[in-house]
């Protein structure tokens, strides 16, 4: 009985399939436009298959990257870093996609001829193509421009997988970059970052501009000597995109080896903030034409563009810093740990995906045009340009900076000029001409070489330059703090000043940092966290309704206990009395913008 029932099911399935096929054939005979619909359906199915394959490849790569990172946490290799291996994984997948038949779908190419025969000087955004099937009215298809000039003019079959796997600058700028910047700000050592903010801004604004100009001039001289058809504008644009540094590998090694915090802050701060300068320089140079005069309006437009881009990037960074400064203290211990781990995981996956994405795009991109001499000249130019701005700026800063930037730190800053995803994204944003394709290909090779060479040799360079790390760096930092505090005591005859007793930072000598501390301790911390003193203690009497409204239950309990114990009067801020107003800094993890090292 079971065998007969199973046979009847097979017969019913076969009959239903036959009926469906017959109906499709009948529909095709009565509807001449059915082949168009079937072709569109087939293409949609193929594209869906390609998208699924891409997701599978990248998820498998991310799993492999996570396993590699776990291995490197337990077995550190001196000259190999997981970022370099991530790039290798992407290169292998790109090589596989380029020279195999994975992702090739059936397609046809038609040479479109203009209908009105007018001259087209710019590539159109849309193309309209009329198709006239048999016994059917004309059907119009609209095609949108999704990429510039393709390098595969001789390629007949459409490699849809390659097109979809190519690095997308917009995905990088809008999806992958913000989590990385946010995680950097959330886990930032604020004290050392803001102490070095003057030096960081000097490297960001002066150094990035000088680097782009020197690189552009050297490359223009090289192109003039070897008779390459590159204009001065193109070389300045090339120099501006290469001025963006991304020493993610170096910073990872710094963290593993626990390098001195000031050096870490200088390298990190420059890499985070100079992206905005590189974007503005490249866009301003790219929009400037030879027939256009650079007048005051153009200068104001460039300044406005810079403010928009710079504060867009910095907003993400400072949002994370403020979240870590205020919101973090309102969370439970478990929530604090989970949020920190979550942002670290998101940042790690984004960085890994970016370098894997870059590796895949090197082989599958259609905009490849190689020039070995141009590449060698580029490597020489970026090293010279970085040296030209690192050493003079450090010499200028050391005139008034205490402690000074030592010579071995300067050498390490020169060595940390890796190029990464930002330069790659800016280069591949426009590859519509042969020269742009040469610049994009050269940029990709510069990124790969600097990640492998500089990233792999970072630990060796730290030992070679005798940069203190680990316990040595920690002991020196503690000794420096003790020396600063000793100088503060010596200036007062060895007696403990009110600021020492209260825990005030000995660097707090500037007017603005001192005022910010008072404002943060008296208003911002009580308003946004459960920190004490409460707003009821710090605000004037006429603001008491406002203070009660924004005082939490936990703060109110502490306030009530203080009133009952009679200790409220001793805690009340009173004018500029250092014993009363500064004592709150002991328990506050405040934003350390004091003692800025200019």
From TrEMBL:
GO terms for biological process: regulation of intracellular pH; sodium ion import across plasma membrane. It holds the Pfam family Na_H_Exchanger. It is a multi-pass membrane protein. It is found in: Cell membrane; Recycling endosome membrane. One of its GO terms (molecular function) is sodium:proton antiporter activity. GO terms for cellular component: plasma membrane; recycling endosome membrane. The keyword Aminoacyl-tRNA synthetase does not apply. The chain crosses the membrane at residues 52-72, 79-97, 200-229, 235-254, 263-285, 297-321, 342-364, 370-388, 409-428, 440-462. Residues 64-315 form the Cation/H+ exchanger transmembrane domain. Keywords: Cell membrane, Endosome, Ion transport, Membrane, Sodium, Sodium transport, Transmembrane, Transmembrane helix, Transport. Belongs to the monovalent cation:proton antiporter 1 (CPA1) transporter (TC 2.A.36) family. This is Sodium/hydrogen exchanger 6. It comes from Ascaris suum (Pig roundworm). The lineage of its organism: Eukaryota, Metazoa, Ecdysozoa, Nematoda, Chromadorea.
């Amino acid at each position: 009985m079971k065998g007969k029932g199973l046979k009847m099911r097979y017969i019913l399935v076969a009959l239903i399939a036959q009926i469906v096929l017959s109906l499709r054939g009948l529909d095709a005979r009565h509807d001449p436009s059915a082949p168009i619909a079937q072709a569109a359906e087939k293409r949609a199915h193929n594209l869906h298959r390609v998208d699924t394959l891409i997701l599978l490849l990248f998820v498998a790569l991310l799993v492999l990257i996570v396993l590699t990172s776990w291995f490197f946490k337990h077995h550190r290799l001196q000259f190999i870093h997981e970022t370099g291996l991530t790039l290798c994984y992407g290169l292998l997948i790109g090589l596989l996609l380029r020279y195999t038949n994975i992702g090739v779908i059936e397609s046809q190419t038609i040479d479109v001829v203009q209908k009105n025969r007018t001259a087209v000087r710019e590539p159109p955004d849309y193309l309209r193509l009329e198709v006239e099937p048999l016994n059917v009215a004309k059907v119009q298809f609209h095609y949108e421009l999704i990429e510039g000039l393709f390098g595969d003019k001789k390629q007949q079959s459409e490699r849809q997988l390659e097109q979809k796997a190519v690095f997308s600058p917009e995905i990088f700028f809008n999806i992958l970059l913000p989590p990385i910047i946010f995680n950097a700000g959330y886990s930032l050592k604020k004290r050392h970052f803001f102490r070095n903010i003057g030096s960081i801004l000097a490297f960001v604004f002066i150094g990035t501009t000088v680097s782009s100009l020197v690189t552009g001039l050297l490359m223009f001289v090289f192109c003039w000597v070897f008779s390459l058809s590159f204009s001065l504008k193109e070389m300045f644009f090339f120099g501006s995109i290469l001025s963006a540094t991304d020493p993610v590998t170096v910073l990872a090694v710094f963290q593993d080896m626990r390098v001195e915090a000031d050096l870490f802050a200088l390298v990190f701060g420059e890499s985070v903030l100079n992206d905005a300068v590189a974007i503005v320089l490249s866009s301003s140079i790219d929009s400037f034409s030879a027939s256009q005069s650079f007048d005051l309006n153009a200068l104001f437009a460039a300044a406005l563009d810079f403010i928009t881009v710079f504060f867009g990037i910095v907003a993400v960074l400072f949002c994370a810093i403020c979240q870590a400064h205020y919101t973090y203290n309102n969370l439970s211990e478990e929530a604090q740990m989970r949020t920190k781990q979550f942002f670290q995981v998101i940042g790690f996956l984004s960085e890994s995906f970016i370098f894997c994405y870059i590796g895949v795009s090197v082989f599958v991109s259609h905009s490849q045009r190689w020039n070995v001499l141009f590449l060698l000249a580029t490597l020489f130019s970026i090293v010279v340009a970085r040296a030209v701005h690192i050493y003079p700026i450090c010499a200028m800063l050391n005139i008034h900076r205490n402690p000074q930037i030592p010579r071995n730190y300067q050498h390490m800053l020169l060595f940390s000029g890796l190029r990464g995803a930002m330069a790659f994204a800016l280069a591949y944003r426009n590859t519509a001409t042969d020269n742009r394709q040469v610049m994009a290909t050269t940029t990709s090779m510069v990124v790969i070489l600097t990640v492998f060479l500089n990233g792999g040799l970072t630990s060796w360079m730290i030992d070679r330059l005798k940069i203190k790390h680990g316990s040595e760096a920690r002991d020196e930092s503690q000794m420096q703090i003790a020396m600063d505090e000793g100088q503060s005591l010596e200036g007062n005859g060895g007696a403990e000043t009110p600021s020492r007793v209260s825990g005030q930072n000995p660097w707090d000598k500037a007017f603005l940092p001192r005022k910010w501390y008072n404002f943060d301790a008296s208003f911002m911390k009580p308003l946004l966290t459960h920190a004490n003193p409460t707003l009821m203690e710090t605000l004037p009497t006429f603001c008491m309704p406002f203070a009660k409204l924004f005082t939490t239950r936990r703060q109110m309990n502490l306030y009530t206990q203080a009133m009952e114990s009679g200790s409220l009067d001793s805690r009340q801020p009173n004018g500029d009395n250092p014993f009363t107003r500064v004592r709150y800094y002991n328990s506050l993890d405040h934003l350390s913008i004091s003692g800025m090292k200019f």
